[in-house]
Amino acid sequence: MIQRTRGERIFNVFNVTVLGVVALMALYPFVYTISMSLSSAAEAMRSGLHLYPRDISLTSFEMVLANPDIVSGFANSVLRTVSGTALTLFFTCLTAYPLARKELPYRGPLLFLILFTMIFSGGIVPNYLLIKNIGLIDSIWALILPHMLTAFNVIVMKNFFQSIPESLAESAKIDGASEINILARIYVPLSKPVLATVGLWTAVSHWNQWFDAMLYITSDENQVLQTFLQRIVIESSVEMIEQGLVDPNVTQFTPETIKAATVVVTVLPMLLIYPFVQKYFVKGIMLGGVKE
Questions:
Q1: 8 Å CB contact between 12 and 4
Q2: Could you tell me the CA-to-CA distances from 160 to 118, 163, 292 in Å, in that order?
Q3: At what angle do helices 255-288 and 151-162 cross, to 10 degrees?
Q4: Residue-wise pLDDT tens digits, 34-61
Q5: Quick one: 86 exposed, middle or buried, by C-beta within 10 A (0-12, 13-18, 19+)?
Q6: Mean per-residue pLDDT over the chain, rounded
Q7: What is the largest CA-CA distance in the chain?
Q8: For the whole model, what pTM was predicted?
Q9: Rounded to an integer, what distance in angstroms lies between the CA atom of residue 265 and that of residue 73?
Q10: Which domains does the chain have, with CATH numbers?
Q11: Residues 37, 23: Cα–Cα separation, whole Å
C-alpha cells in the first residue's frame, strides 16, 4: 500500500474538490434546461436554482412537436446528417486510400494541394455564388455537397490507413485482388475506429450547422431544425411555436420553457448516438493522428 504524505493528501482533496465544482458548473446548464423544459409556467418563473421540475408539465414539448415547421426541420436535419455522413465516409475512404499508398504518382503535390485548402478558402461570397450558379439554392444538396470532403478528415483517415501493414495488401494482390477489393475487404473492416471517429465528427457538424442553411435555404419546408432553434433561442421568436397552439386557454408554458424544450429536442439525438461510438473515438484519433 502506498503511503502518501500529508501534503499529497491535502493536494488530492483540493484537486478533487476543485474539479468536482468545475464539473457541476459545466453540468448545471444542461440540468437547468431539462428542468425548465418539463416545468409549468409558475415553476419556470420561480427564482432560484432549477435542479428538477417541482411541477411537471409537458405542454412545451407538445407545442414544439405539434408545430409543422419543427417537425419538417427535424426531418430535414436527419436527412442531412445521415446522407452527409454516409457520403463523407464513402468519398473520404476513396480519397485517403490512394494517398496512403506510397507508390501513388504525384503523391506529394496532391497532399500539398489538399493541405493548402486547410489554410486558404474562397470565403462566403464565392461559395454562395458557386451554389447559386449550379442551381442548388433552396436544396438539401446545398447543405451536403460543400461538406462532403474535408482535408482534415482525409489526412486523419490517410494516416490510419498507413498504420495498416502493407503486407496485407501485397498478399491480396498476389491472390488477384483489385485495389477496390483491397479497400473494401481489408482496409475498411480494419478501420472501424477511424470510420466511427470521422463519422461522429461529420454527424455532429451536420446536425449543429445552421448558418449555411440560413444562407442557401429560402423556404421553411426545406429548412433544418437548427435554423428554427436559432430563431427561437437567439432571436426570442416563439410566435412560430405559439401558432401551433390548439387550445388558446392553455397557460402552462412560457417563452423560456418553449426555448428549453426546443433545445432538448435538438440535442437529444446526438446524446443518444454518442455513447455507441465513444469506444472507437480515442483509438481513432490516436491512430489517425500518427504522422507519416
A1: yes
A2: 19, 5, 10
A3: 40
A4: 888 888 877 777 777 777 788 888 888 8
A5: middle
A6: 83
A7: 76
A8: 0.80
A9: 11
A10: 59-288 (1.10.3720.10)
A11: 22
